[in-house]
Amino acid sequence: MRRRKFLKYCTSVLSSIYAIILAVPALGFLFSTLKRGQQEKETYELAKLNDLEPGVPQRFTIIDRRVDAWTKYPSGPIGSVWISKNEDESITAFSSTCPHLGCVVDYVPGDKVFFCPCHAATFESNGSIVSGPQPRGMDELNASIKTIRGEKWIVVEYEKFETGIAEKVSIN
Ligand code: FES
């Protein structure tokens, strides 16, 4: 009888240890996912303000480390941004990802419009819709000007958004 009790006790102790061993990585994954969701948006110093011509959007590639659920990749392009300097030296930044299905939006200087070659979505230079299948205008990004070592730099908060829907929903 005593022996049976002892074996029962050993089994429950071993089961508990086994459960803890299984739970630790699962909890680690859960907390890292939650932490990632709370992270602040990444900011990028993309260009000197003086290097942009007013009214002529320029595209800048965002270089960073890419991380998915299981893998960290080395630095590489993760997206791009269209930046316009306005006459009053304020700036406007748009994600170059088409809100229709995610192709890269181009700029047509002759017509002063943004154009997505995949399904012919056309946008005004202020990002609003001209024509095409896109459910919303171009996704504007937060941008500001920061003085770094005496020079004015354009700093953009880069984020990605859901495509194919009318609302602008961040997926960072
Ligand atoms: S992905 Fe741009 S128009 Fe379809």
Structure, explained:
The structure is a single chain. With 172 residues, the protein is of the alpha+beta class. It has two domains: 38 residues; 129 residues, 3-layer Sandwich (Rieske Iron-sulfur Protein). Helix content is 22%, strand content 38%. The chain contains one helix and eleven strands; from the N terminus they run H-E-E-E-E-E-E-E-E-E-E-E. The strands form three sheets. The protein has a four-stranded antiparallel sheet with strand order 2-3-4-9, with no helix packed on it. Strands 5-6-7-8 form a four-stranded antiparallel sheet, with no helix packed on it. Strand 2 and strand 3 form a beta hairpin. The N and C termini lie far apart (59 Å). The model has no long low-confidence stretch (mean pLDDT 88). Bound molecules: FE2/S2 (inorganic) cluster. The site of FE2/S2 (inorganic) cluster (FES) has 12 residues, from loops.
